[in-house]
Amino acid sequence: MRRTRLSAKACVALAALGPLLGVAGTGPAWSSDHFDSPLMTANPQADIADVYAWTASEGRRLYLVMTVAGHTFSDRLRYSIHIDSGRSFGRTTASITILCRFPSPKTAVCRLGDVDSVVGDAGDPKGLQGRKGRFRVFAGLRDDPFYNNVKGALSAYGVATNAIKTGAAPLDEAGCARLDPASAKAVADQWRHTDGGPPTNLLANWTASAIVISVDLDAVSRGGPLLAVWGTTSTSNHQADRMGRPFVANTLLGASPFSSDDGSGAERERFNGASEKAMLSFAPQIEKGLAFQDALDGTCGNQFLADRAPAGRGRYHALARMFADDRLWVNSAARVCRQFLGVELAALGGRKSYKSDCGGRSPVYDMPNVWRSLLISGSADATAWDGLTRDEHAPSASNFPFLAPPDAHGIDH
After folding, report:
1. What's the average model confidence in pLDDT over 97-108?
2. Confidence bin at 308 (pLDDT 50/70/90)
3. C-alpha radius of gyration, the chain, whole number
4. CA distance 331 to 343
5. Which residues contact 293 (CB under 8 A, 6 or more apart)?
6. What per-residue confidence (pLDDT) applies to 99?
7. Interstrand relation of 135-143 and 226-234 (parallel, antiparallel or unpaired)
8. How many CB atoms within 10 Å of residue 264?
9. What beta strand segments (E) does 56-156 contain?
10. Which of 296, 297, 294, 326 is closest to 311 using CA atoms?
11. Cα–Cα–Cα angle for 255, 47, 98, nearest 5°?
């Protein structure tokens, strides 16, 4: 199997992370879905890094971004963004796919279902307008807006894992480790530092290939105003990767977050290739990942959607099913986009203040910290768990193509 060629800086970082993971041969896992399985590590052109979806403030367009780990697009792959639509959360009645192919390095061929199409060089930051004017496409290198203190996170996970292995943190019936106050404090301390010093973004100046789309809302919302979005890469007969919400495959699936044992890799590859009908089969394993996250503040049962009743095996069932339905939900009737998972918070969590928020995921959201806050303490507020709150190159939620230009000294994956 062909292996990804890493830059010298990335190799140094990988070597430093190896002891923290405690597994030989560990592959990189730096973004919310970068390099989540051995197959994706070997095929960066097929590896979806992140998916973003949010509405324009004027209320007429949906903005979409799918970043890919490789520095070029493959002429053998199909890059697709799927949009389901409906009138209530969890139920969709119509679907449309924006599919892009790249037969040559400077030629993009994209179709918005049977509504519109573009053919040509989409590398100009202004984008390439569809023949019927229904959507606009940019495809090329941009700065990866995701940020993560990976070494701090892995050190924090290591503290919790060691407490479990030594018996210092027994598991309750739901699988949550009861960390003692000293261990919980150590988790928080490790997470906010890098090698004992200030937190460092391992993804600083990283460059990704990006497909950026601005599309008319009425072209993608035939079933209703609630949209469910996810991306795939595929050949004509095989789905290579998929992604909707961040942090599912590489953090909630497998033996532990970022684990690289053969079993974890195989499970993530099954997830990446799974059909929509098969997604719920991953819920039981996702429950185990949720139990691990819930333990990290030293309090079990305070996670978003966790059953507040005494510890039981079904405590994480509701949230696991939500994550197994791996689609990013957007309320296209809203013109304000401030809250990651805003649709889910309103529909499942009963948090009415988010009903007027588009939710989804904008590149300016402090998504990593909101995700951690919800899974660790149940709060929808962004708590700087790993000491980072933004990328070094500020993206935009309003100026196409949204992501900053690639840094001249950017990292080559």
Report:
1. 96
2. confident
3. 20
4. 7
5. 251, 252, 303, 372, 375, 376
6. 98
7. unpaired
8. 23
9. 61-68, 78-86, 94-104, 107-112, 116-120, 128-129, 135-143
10. 294
11. 125
pLDDT digits (tens, 9 = 90+) for 240-299: 999 999 999 999 999 889 888 889 999 999 999 998 889 999 999 999 999 999 999 999
> pLDDT per residue over 70-100, tens digit each?
999 999 999 999 999 999 999 999 999 999 9
For 98, residues 6+ apart whose C-beta sits below 8 A from its C-beta are 64, 80, 81, 83, 110, 111, 112, 113, 135, 213, 215
> Minimal CA–CA distance to 175: which of 290, 291, 298?
291
Q: Which phi and psi (to 5°) does residue 268 adopt?
A: -70, -35
Q: Which residues contact 11 (CB under 8 A, 6 or more apart)?
A: none
Q: What percent of the chain has pLDDT over 90?
A: 80
Question: Strand, coil or helix: what is 283?
Answer: helix
Give the Cα separation of 318 and 305 in Å (integer): 6
The CA–CA distances, whole Å, from 116 to 153, 210, 252 equal 44, 20, 37
Burial status of residue 18 (CB atoms within 10 A of its CB: 0-12, 13-18, 19 or more)? middle
Q: Are 317 and 344 in contact (CB under 8 A)?
A: no
CA distance 197 to 194: 5
With tokens 């969890």, the residue in question is: 90
Strands (E), 293-339: 328-331
Largest pairwise CA distance in the chain: 64
Joined together, the tokens standing for residue 142 give 């941009």
Domains of the chain: 43-145+204-244 (2.60.40), 150-202+254-376 (no CATH)
